[in-house]
Amino acid sequence: MPGVAMRELPQTAPLIDVHAHFYHEGAGRSDWARLNDARVRAGDTIGVTYHVASVLGSYGHTSPTYFPSPADVTRGNDAMAALAASQADRVRWYATVNPNDTRHALAEIERCVALSAVGVKLLASRRADDPLVDPICELAARQRLPVLHHIWQHRTRDWPNQEISDGLDLACLAARHPKVTFILAHLGGGGDWAHTLPAIRETPNVVADLSGSGVDRGMLDQAVEILGARRLLWACDLTMETGLAKLRALDVIGLAEGDVMDVRWRNAARIFATGTFPRCELA
Amino acid sequence: MIDCAAWIGPYPFREVPHPDPATLVRVLERERLTGAWVGHLPSAWHRDPRPGNAALFAALAPYPTLLPAPMIRPDWPGWEQMLADVVAKGAVAIRAYPQHWGIQPGDSRMNALARACATSARPLLLTVRFEDLRQRSPLDVAGDLSAAHVRALARTGEDVCIVVTGAGRELIEETHWGLTPVERGRVYWDFAWVWGPPEEHFAHLLRTMGAERFVYGTHWPLRLTQNSRANLDLLPADQRDPGITDAGSLSPRFVREMPT
Fold this sequence. Notes:
CATH class of chain A: Alpha Beta
CATH architecture of chain A: Alpha-Beta Barrel
Shape of chain B: globular
Number of domains of chain A: 1
Structural class of chain B: alpha/beta
Strand order of the largest sheet of chain A: 1-2-3-4-5-6-7-8
Low-confidence stretches of chain B: 253-260
Number of helices of chain A: 10
CATH superfamily of chain B: Metal-dependent hydrolases
Mean pLDDT of chain A: 95
Shape of chain A: globular
Distance between the termini of chain A: 34 Å
Strand order of the largest sheet of chain B: 4-5-6-7-8
CATH superfamily of chain A: Metal-dependent hydrolases
CATH topology of chain A: TIM Barrel
Helix content of chain B: 25-40%
Number of helices of chain B: 9
Structural class of chain A: alpha/beta
Strand content of chain A: 5-15%
Strand content of chain B: 5-15%
Number of domains of chain B: 1
Oligomer: heterodimer
């Protein structure tokens, strides 16, 4: 297209998307395979080395996305495990659980780790600071699993179909479990990111992923200023074009090259177990 | 390629970094855009458009690639003369925010503005939203521009040219397929808020509506300018270089001369 630069996309340095999702035939969408293919294709274009992904039960088809039934949790995790096995060179995965079914959640984490899960995904099934989440975090600590927690940036009211948490709620949970690294989901994913940054600043075991459809100018600058580059993780979630935009913005907001590498992949490599991302570590 | 969705000036509900014309010029150069239709951001919340428009023209005067797109509200006394004045001063497009003025779809005053813009050969530039609903201030109660607004304006006359910025797939499709083929040809959309992969809403819209219906907008200084180009770069291989419309071509008689 004349007049608009089509730049060479960055393919040289490793890049880890710590917040991705895949779909399956039980997700209620006939185009589920197209969505999965589109993510992989766009990831290749962007230069994603690893997608760290989860399946959210049936995505509302047979139980609510954020309150998945035990059967849907298991079916979703099975689908995720199968996809990760089929793309072992570039897909890692979180075990998704619903803390309301505590026994099932704990058993599911153990089962999924045996199937190669590298972290735990918590949705909005229970507020983050609820004691019901504690057994899951205790198991995550024993297994050394990072916990990716769905977050609304500054909850000012309840929203339908989810029991939302914000940065303050997650900071409470993280303070109770200092050996667990919590990934605060989608800083750009809705709500007020400016509230989140000071909410988690003093809780060093909370790191933030940059995903979400929001691409507000100033968000990256303030995130670096308040949290530092070593507490930020690049990610896309549902909108990969916003991920690419933020990736390109990282190159023009004045970060040192080492800081950019931290956000692109080194922080993720530090947070997850050694050996999780061999293609990055080789690079 | 012209960026049809840029503003200067502060935003009332949060700090935005460096919303000044000199910074915008540097950003456009970095993004290899030839220029931008530029509005005065705080004016969207002002009652009287005149001070904001005056500030806009004064601020842009030293920058030939920044093309003024001032605001005209058709419920304000003397708006016809105001329109004539800004056209004479070099306005390339006319911004309107009916949702901020409480003007409902089909209101005769907005229809009159659309026709007056057509007479002046200026596109009418509408903004669906400035921020995501989920982060909007409780004081920002205007709501999003509706598809009904756009449909009504597209039906006001054959020379009408409407550019809508900040819409998502749902609003675009509701509007587009609710118009006749002739009426659709009067409406252009930017894709700054349209989702790319994996949902691929943008690719879908290009396939179903045609690339010529889309123009390039960034929503600077509110949003990262890199987003629209990222959307283009992530199109499936069969849709690369889709041939979108350059907004600069929509008001050809009035575009200020660009530096070579």
